[in-house]
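Deliverable D2.4 — example input (structure tokens):
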């Protein structure tokens, strides 16, 4: 849930440096020394130089040879290298497109559209960049079969992972239900304690209100969540309880409040004044596909699982 985004700027520079080293090798087919690279790239740090050389050696683009008492770098195959140079440019374009997408990532279709490359080329480049650990593929909760690509060191945005309520792109309905129950139980206990004070009804009502911070602290200390839940996560759960008619919320002025500065949200458990009628609880009332529901259609009352659940309840 952390929104901190840490990007290493190094990879784009490394790709630039690699291209330049290959160009130097092409200009001097007999090979180049470290001294030539240092002279041509004075701003390149020793560590960057070593990284580039190692990558060029490991990807088979250059050879390391001994000439007298000097080590020289030579292109393995000039033709292959010129192809590689073109490939590097394409790789860099794809890398930049992915970098611009930041931690929201980008789909392969959009990479193709923006880079004007063929699908096979994009696939090859993505595999290459993934093997170099410059980028990674992340499954998006927005579409289970689609992956988005982002820089390797980025933490995916909540819109991609789904946040605390998703695990491996699956909605954790049981976890949400447990949180729901625990929050409600905690607030019911608070209300019971307030009733036991036997003060006047107004004082009891006020005493049963609990700040968001206390509810968040209680849930955090229960240790039922594998991920660190934020106050906003708990607020989402409390909102669902409000919609279910089980809680009410009020906002009071306070220093260092949970919401907007100077305001704090308080919650209390309530008993609904009027029980909802059977017709109100019927799923069709809030069904998003109500207009498309008819016998023989893609959705119908006969095949609807929500209708079945309602009839069975
Ligand atoms: S029967 Fe099911 S699908 Fe049809 S409107 Fe009702 S809830 Fe929606």
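Example output (designed residues):
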């Amino acid at each position: 849930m952390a929104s901190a985004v840490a990007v290493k700027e190094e990879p784009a520079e490394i790709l630039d440096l690699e291209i330049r080293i290959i160009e130097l090798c092409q200009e001097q087919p007999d090979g180049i020394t470290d001294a030539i690279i240092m002279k041509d790239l004075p701003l390149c740090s020793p560590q960057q130089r070593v990284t580039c050389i190692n990558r060029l050696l490991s990807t088979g683009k250059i050879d390391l040879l001994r000439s007298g008492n000097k080590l020289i770098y030579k292109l393995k195959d000039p033709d292959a290298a010129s192809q590689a140079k073109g490939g590097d440019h394409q790789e860099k374009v794809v890398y930049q497109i992915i970098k611009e997408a930041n931690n929201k990532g980008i789909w392969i279709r959009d990479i193709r559209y923006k880079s004007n490359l063929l699908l096979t080329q994009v696939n090859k480049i993505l595999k290459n960049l993934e093997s170099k650990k410059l980028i990674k593929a992340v499954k998006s909760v927005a579409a289970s079969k689609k992956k988005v690509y982002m820089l390797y060191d980025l933490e995916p945005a909540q819109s991609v992972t789904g946040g605390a309520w998703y695990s491996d792109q699956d909605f954790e309905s049981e976890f949400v239900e447990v949180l729901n129950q625990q929050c409600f139980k905690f607030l019911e206990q608070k209300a019971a304690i307030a009733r036991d004070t036997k003060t006047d009804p107004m004082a009891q009502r006020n005493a049963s209100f609990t700040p968001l911070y206390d509810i968040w602290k209680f849930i955090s200390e229960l240790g039922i969540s594998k991920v660190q839940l934020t106050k906003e996560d708990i607020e989402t759960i409390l909102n669902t309880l409000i919609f279910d008619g089980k809680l009410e919320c009020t906002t009071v002025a306070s220093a260092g409040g949970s919401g907007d500065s100077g305001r704090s949200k308080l919650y209390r458990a309530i008993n609904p004044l009027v029980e909802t009628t059977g017709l109100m609880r019927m799923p069709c009332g809030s069904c998003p596909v109500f207009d498309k529901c008819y016998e023989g259609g893609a959705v119908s009352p006969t095949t609807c699982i929500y209708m079945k659940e309602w009839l069975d309840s």
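The CA atoms of residues 112 and 120 lie 10 Å apart.
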